[in-house]
Automatic annotation (TrEMBL):
Cofactor: Zn(2+)
Protein's name according to its UniProt entry: N-alpha-acetyl-L-2,4-diaminobutyric acid deacetylase
Signal peptide (from-to): none
GO molecular function: hydrolase activity, acting on carbon-nitrogen (but not peptide) bonds, in linear amides; hydrolase activity, acting on ester bonds; metal ion binding
Length: 329
């Protein structure tokens, strides 16, 4: 008989338990489901809502927690439905309500810090500590437009990087990015601790749809099948993600109004203009120009853009061959 403990919740072999885990040192309670398989095996941690306006990931976590049964598992799932709960309840988008921090910049956190630090610390010491693998469900934030893609950890021991890449390759999205970071983000930090981890980006702009959630659940199930934790074979996919290299994340140098010229997912050539920042009179303050041929992974889509905050992110698309024409798609 196996017993899996997360905070003050626990589940035994063959049980599914849902309840709340308290963020240590706060009165915040996080919704959690533990599914302990009838057969013993590896434990997969799944989280939604690190960024609270990324609704596709949150709804995917909620539905996966409801649908998967202990009888289907050789191993266990720990599902954290919504990591930034107070942010969600105040619609703060990426920020924790109490301190204005972005959770995915604060890992591994600190038990004595502000609320965001304490959430990160609880996630590391109660959730990641139990995990053999980790799937973090994101999407574009409330002001971000993106093309679906998947990150896997890139800064970790080679076996962990390889295992994470294998998980990412069964995700049904066109692009895969190996993260150059070993800290800050929840999945980055988990990777640096030896847990193969991926982050799925699907959906954006504070919206969600049944279709996107179905695709998200299919992705999660396929990773679990690939890991032999969920019964069945990895199902057919439309996409087999290709590696996007040399990712450039450009931050804005001015606060003002943003006028992007491309759509997320567009391919372009070095020197093409990706957008303008203008002041409130319509005067151009800044021109964003592509530093290389690339595929646009995500960009700010709100009229408001903020100095020092993200503007565009793009990388090299191996499928966009030299000599091919740029597309504005
Ligand atoms: Zn996110």
């Amino acid at each position: 008989m196996q017993i899996l403990k997360v905070g003050n919740m626990c589940a035994k072999t063959g049980e599914k338990v849902s309840g709340y885990v308290q963020v240590k040192g706060t009165d915040i309670e996080l919704a959690v489901t533990i599914i302990c398989g009838e057969k013993e095996g590896k434990t997969v941690f799944i989280s939604g809502g690190v960024h609270n306006a990324e609704y596709v990931g949150i709804e995917t976590a909620i539905e996966i927690a409801n649908e998967i049964l202990p009888s289907q598992l050789t191993g266990n799932l720990i599902i954290l439905h919504l990591m930034n709960r107070t942010g969600f309840e105040h619609r703060t988008m990426s920020m924790v309500y109490e301190d204005g921090k972005n959770l995915n910049r604060e890992f591994p956190g600190n038990a004595q810090g502000t609320t965001a630090d304490r959430i990160c610390h609880t996630v590391v010491t109660e959730f990641q500590k139990n995990a053999d693998y980790y799937i973090d469900l994101h999407c574009g934030d409330g002001y971000e437009e993106l093309t679906p893609y998947v990150y896997c950890v890139g800064v970790a021991v080679p076996e962990v990087v390889k295992a994470a890449k294998g998980m990412a390759e069964v995700i049904n999205v066109p692009y895969l990015v190996q993260s150059p970071c070993g800290s800050g983000g929840s999945y980055n930090y988990a990777g640096s601790c030896g847990i193969p981890s991926i982050l799925i980006e699907r959906g954006c702009m504070g919206r969600w749809s049944k279709e996107e959630v179905e695709l998200g659940k299919k992705d999660v199930r396929n990773v679990l099948r690939y890991l032999k934790v969920l019964q069945g074979e990895v199902s057919k996919r439309t996409y087999h993600p290709v590696d996007v290299g040399n990712v450039i994340c450009k931050n804005a140098e001015h606060t003002g109004c943003w006028y992007p010229t491309k759509k997320a997912g567009a391919n372009f050539r070095k020197g093409e203009i990706l957008g303008y920042i203008k002041d409130y009179f319509g005067n151009v303050l800044e021109t964003c120009t592509a530093e290389m041929d690339g595929i646009l992974l995500y960009q700010v889509a709100s009229l408001c853009i903020i100095k020092g905050d993200s503007m565009v992110a793009y990388g090299e698309n191996p499928n966009h061959k030299e000599g091919a024409k740029g597309t504005d798609g």
